[in-house]
Amino acid sequence: MALLPTITGPRDLDRLSPEQLTELASEIRTFLIENVARTGGHLGPNLGVVELTIAMHRVFRSPDDPFIFDTGHQSYVHKILTGRQDFSGLRSRDGLAGYPQRSESPHDVVESSHASSSLSWADGISRALSRTGRRDHHVVAVVGDGSLTGGMTWEALNNISDDNDRNLVIIVNDNGRSYAPTIGGMARYLNRVRAAGAYRTLRTSSDSLFRALGPWARAVYRGVRGGTHGFLSRFVNNESLYSNLDIKYFGPIDGHDIPTLLETLELAKRYQAPVIVHVITEKGRGYAPALEDEADQFHAVGKIDPATGETLGSGGGTAWTSVFADELVTVGEQRPDVIAVTAAMLRPTGLKPFADRFPGRVYDVGIAEQHAVASAAGLAYGGLHPVVAIYATFMNRAFDQVMMDVALHRAGVTFVLDRAGVTGPDGPSHHGIWDLAMLQIVPGIRIAAPRDAARLRELLHEAVAVEDAPTVVRFPRGNVGDELPAIERLSDGTDVLARNDQQDVLIVGIGPMAQVAVDVAHRLHSQGIGATVIDPRWAVPVAPSVVQLAAQHRIVITIEDGIRVGGVGTRIRQVLREAGIDTAVDELGVPDEFISHASREQILEDAGLVAPKIAHDVVAQVLGTRVPKARASEDAGEWTAADAAPEDAGRRADD
């Protein structure tokens, strides 16, 4: 009889024997492979923590003992054991979130999926439990070895060691990888522990010997194993890493050996002070395609064939990231001073081809965005031009360094923000919707938003040519759409994408929203309303042509896939007011709220950032100020556009 269907909550684990727990682990791995293959998601990290998560829920009492996952992409097993086994809608609207989410379960505590913050949460919660008389509760934080490259982790450890009067268990899930192999001095240190011949040989041989000798020998082995671990950890000089912080250390232990995990976690539970449990696991455990994947061991996958691991239904097309990756190599060939910086995301941000072509010209700083940006300022001071490639959501973490280290010092640093705007299935912490509003307040900054692949290539070259200020090139997740050529490029670099001799509405499309802007113009034209569509290319600062064109139109509509509060539209409105131009401005963007997981298309439709909705609202607004002379498109004036009208261009905007 299968065990997994009988698990409706963590306490169902209490009745299972260690052998049954091992059987359950096998069933969970099969469940993960079959289900994540259908939906996509974080597969490798979860395959690596099956036994660990089972042991945690067996020993501790969630949610009374809060569990905190850093970063949360390894929480699928936790979801399964806490009554959430419907993975059919994983990372889709109304389905399970890809990260912990409080609205799903009281077992989920921290929703943010940004690395290195878990120990700060654990520090605060454990202090609160101690101060409010709940000393019988434990806080359990799971932090990956990759997160140890982040400064917040060490700031938290410094404070945790200052107060031993609380029950806090820190589990270091050490698989030698973040997205890719963990880098830096900490990684080398842990690699020596993981690969120590004395530890592996003695641990494996002792285990085999005592198990073979029968029950009495296994009992003796369990009794001495804790002492052996202590001896071995000292032998490989690992415990010294934490001893100076006054935090008790257990390990390293096999993260796939359930009896060992149970015994060690029980010891940690009884210690009644902060303790670190060092667990060595294998990312992608039990799934050959993941283990054979040298890139990231199936850290995150789309829909795949569960038997082979091959990607299904990619649909073709070229990813924005790939366009950037190829063009940066071209830039590097032309500019030997250009180097690249990544925060533990060499492949996801497209820097791998550059690293292959120019070994030694890429610096991976680990999960440490603040350090990456400040270090880039130093590189610029030394005569280089750094290109810092970061997901837009993670740029939030380094705002102070952009402001005070790069911009204040007028450093020539180019930031390339992947996954900018609405990203979709990864949920609120991964949307890149804050970058335009956040970064445009930095003095002297220049922000480019390419609408297609050709513009991404040219804007990247323009960005690295700036040596006295920070530049930003942002683009969304997914594949690049068709090229959207301009019918004219104005002297300041603004592209005109569509024009009508009847100047009613000026539509400013930012980046990928330029296509939406053109579609809106087609719909307005069919209603006898004239529209001009422009793409500034450089969204910040506001180009003079935007001001001039705004003065010639009755209404300005700005469309961006960032938050509308403080976005590019707000900046344009302010510039117009300063110029004494009273043209009405409608700023369209994403609402200033945390947006749950759904597809990009669903989220944009919810926000009203689709052509039918925008055109409908513009028609209502224009008809409130005048009656068009003609409704038929052939009477609406001469029309010029960069591309053919869509098939439904003749439909009414409110159809």
UniProtKB/TrEMBL annotation:
CDD domains: TPP_DXS (cd02007), TPP_PYR_DXS_TK_like (cd07033). Keywords: Isoprene biosynthesis, Magnesium, Metal-binding, Thiamine biosynthesis, Thiamine pyrophosphate, Transferase. Thiamine diphosphate binds at H73, S113, H114, A115, G146, S147, N175, Y287, E369. The keyword Magnesium applies. Its cofactor is Mg(2+); thiamine diphosphate. Signal peptide: none annotated. Residues 92-113, 630-655 are annotated as: Disordered. GO terms for biological process: isopentenyl diphosphate biosynthetic process, methylerythritol 4-phosphate pathway; terpenoid biosynthetic process; thiamine biosynthetic process. It is an enzyme of class 2 (transferase). It holds the Pfam family DXP_synthase_N. Residues 318-482 form the Transketolase-like pyrimidine-binding domain. Binds 1 Mg(2+) ion per subunit. Pathway: Metabolic intermediate biosynthesis; 1-deoxy-D-xylulose 5-phosphate biosynthesis; 1-deoxy-D-xylulose 5-phosphate from D-glyceraldehyde 3-phosphate and pyruvate: step 1/1. Homodimer. This is 1-deoxy-D-xylulose-5-phosphate synthase. It comes from Microbacterium ginsengisoli.
